[in-house]
Amino acid sequence: MLRVAPVSDARSEDFAEANAAQWGTFASDAATASVTNSTARLKDRTASILFTTASGFDTGVKSPANPSLDFDASAFNSLVLWEYPVNTTPVGWQDLQPIVVIRTTGGTITLPPDSPLTGYSVWQQYNVPFDGGVRWTRTTSGTPDLRHVTQIEIHHDTWDAGFRIWLDGIRFAVSAPY
């Protein structure tokens, strides 16, 4: 069972609440990818974001589509998110994921897990600590400034091609250490 550190009441608003038009997608192989609002699968509040792709390589979502958020996340120590992945390819997920990238005006923080975490057809909560640590490895480029977060990216990769992931409850939070 995936262990999740408790989250306090100190948390931002949900970045995945009926706002798919503000999200963007990417696929390193230029395959189709889209995001839509969904009420088919929910974990937090009234809507989730459904990411659908035909990609078989590094692909994912970014919020907002253009790096223009300028959100002060300096009072938080983690990004918390829920995912419900559906991958019916014969081999399944590839490598370590999900990978979270936090873009700021001064640089980026990249946080891959230290083991594959993405499951199949079940809600999973991830608590991704900005400093890395247990289960997550932190690398940076430039000088990241959490007072000016411009964009959040969530990456996935599969063998073969094509999958869907519902994302919900994406928020900055204060989490207890493991």
Name some characteristics of this structure.
178 residues; Jelly Rolls; mainly beta; 12 strands; six-stranded antiparallel β-sheet
The CATH level-2 architecture of one domain is identified as Sandwich
Strand content: 35-45%
- In one word, what is the shape? globular
Spell the H/E element sequence: EEEEEEEEEEEE
Poorly predicted residue ranges? 1-8
Per the CATH scheme, the topology name of one domain is Jelly Rolls
Largest sheet: 6 strands, antiparallel
Structural class: mainly beta
Would you report the number of β strands? 12
Radius of gyration from CA coordinates: 15 Å
Structure, explained:
There is one protein chain. Helices cover 0% and strands 43% of the residues. By secondary structure, it is mainly beta. It has a domain of 121 residues: Jelly Rolls (Sandwich). Strands 1, 3, 4, 6, 9 and 12 form a six-stranded antiparallel β-sheet that branches. Strand 7 and strand 8 form a beta hairpin. The protein is globular. The two termini are 15 Å apart.
TL;DR of this structure?
By secondary structure, the chain is mainly beta. The chain has strands at residues 7-11, 24-27, 33-38, 48-53, 59-63, 78-86, 99-104, 107-111, 124-129, 139-142, 149-156, 163-175. It has a domain at 7-66 and 77-99 and 118-132 and 153-175: Sandwich (Jelly Rolls), CATH 2.60.120.260.
